[in-house]
Amino acid sequence: MNYKEHVDEHLLIDYAKDQLDSDKRTEIIAHVNMCAQCQTNLKEWELLLNREQQIANDPSPYLKTRIHHSIAKHGKPKRTIAFKPIFASISGVMIVFLCVLLYINMRAQDLTYEVRQNEEIGESELFNHPNTNRLDIIPASTAQNVSGNVWINNATNEMLVEVQGLTHLAERDYQLWVIHSNDQFRSELLQLQNGTAKVYYRGEDLTKLERIKASVEPLGGSDKPTGPETFYVNFTR
């Protein structure tokens, strides 16, 4: 295949994640070698994906604290039991696996929200309420065409996210993550309409809101953020 203009971003993502067959990789790299814009885009995706992987491999302070508290609670063993190396390795893997499951489960606890998107939202007094604050959406470096606003009102426990400029992805979904200060989160797959999405939230948990962000995820979404960010908003309390 000859790319007359530029390689689609979802193909660059798959290339960077080494998820393409050899023929497709050869086609893409042949174009990238002759296209400065695609070279830049590919490097940015590789940097973003590498950064996401580094973050995923580094336990959060919350997880580290939980592990330290567990050790302090149960204390050190009074004697050391010698295991053969193979059993020690298996035990270590099992402990790490259980810690990861515990961490994901604690973060993904269900948050109480009423959620609606696009036409489901209807009319709202949120815009005219005196306690409503408006924040600008901040696009990621690879999504400079993205813009929008977030309206949030702690008095009525409402939030509305409006975003424009999202590129259609045939084999990916945009997933919106609502992250709280206690490390809990919930997510929604954005329902795009001509590159635009609106999401309405209502619930008492909004008072603990710390950050929202959108990331590119596999079709159907992910249990936790894995793809590069598209936009984000940080909240200060």
From TrEMBL:
A GO CC term attached to the entry: plasma membrane
Major localization listed first in the record, in broad terms: membrane
GO BP annotations listed: regulation of translation
Listed transmembrane segments: 86-106
Organism: Aquibacillus salsiterrae
Keyword Transmembrane helix appears in the UniProt entry: yes
GO molecular function: sigma factor antagonist activity
Compartments reported by the entry: Cell membrane; Membrane
Topology of the protein relative to the lipid bilayer: Single-pass membrane protein
Residue span(s) of domain Anti-sigma K factor RskA C-terminal: 102-228
The UniProt record lists the keyword Isomerase: no
Keyword terms: Cell membrane, Membrane, Transmembrane, Transmembrane helix
Official protein name in the record: Regulator of SigK
